Amino acid sequence: MSIIEISAATVIARNVMELITKFSETVTEADQKQQLLEIMGQLLKLQGFAFELMEENAKLKRKIEETQRKKEHLEDCEPCELAPGVWAYRDKITTETVSTSAGAITRQYLCSNCFQSEKKSILKRADHDYRGVHWVCPSCGNDFIDYMQKKQRNNDIIRG
Q1: Are 79 and 86 in contact (CB under 8 A)?
Q2: In 26-111, which residue ranges form alpha helices assigned H by DSSP?
Q3: What's the CA gap between 116 and 148, in Å, rounded?
């Protein structure tokens, strides 16, 4: 709702107050009925403006919630380079492996494509060969290769 519409609503409210004042001063029943009709018309306009303000308020609240959700989504994770030029996201809290009472939790990598779309899709380790560790996103099918963790033909893991 624009400032012009809010100003118009204020003018209408002022007109209603003036009509109510005139109503108390009128003597004839016909004049009172006419003024009551005018008051009711003005009040209906005000009700319309109030409804528009409530709708706009609800939209703004939804936008605020969405913005906060996006902010929290971004704050939980950080970008990480799996290998030169191969980017994913990971949570900021978990280190490579954390021991808990339930067992060890390995850091999980999130698909960068899905993350940009506000989805947290955990990359699945598909393979490990001489080129490196293959990660696949189950949501979008994107394929990542961590070239830093190569396996030699004799299954010895080499870094670099």
Answers
A1: no
A2: 29-76
A3: 24
**Number of alpha carbons in the 13 Å side-chain half-sphere of residue 111:** 21
* DSSP helix/strand/coil, 78: strand
Q: Which helix (H) or strand (E) holds 104?
A: strand 103-106
| Residuewise pLDDT in 10s, the chain (160 residues) | 677 777 878 888 888 888 777 777 766 788 878 888 888 888 888 888 888 889 999 999 999 998 888 777 677 788 888 777 778 888 776 555 545 555 555 667 888 888 888 788 888 888 877 777 888 999 998 888 776 666 655 545 444 4
CA angle (156 as vertex; 153, 157 as ends), nearest 5: 110
Cα distances from 134 to residues 83, 115, 116, 117, in angstroms, run: 11, 19, 21, 22
- Amino acid (1-letter code) at residue 65: E
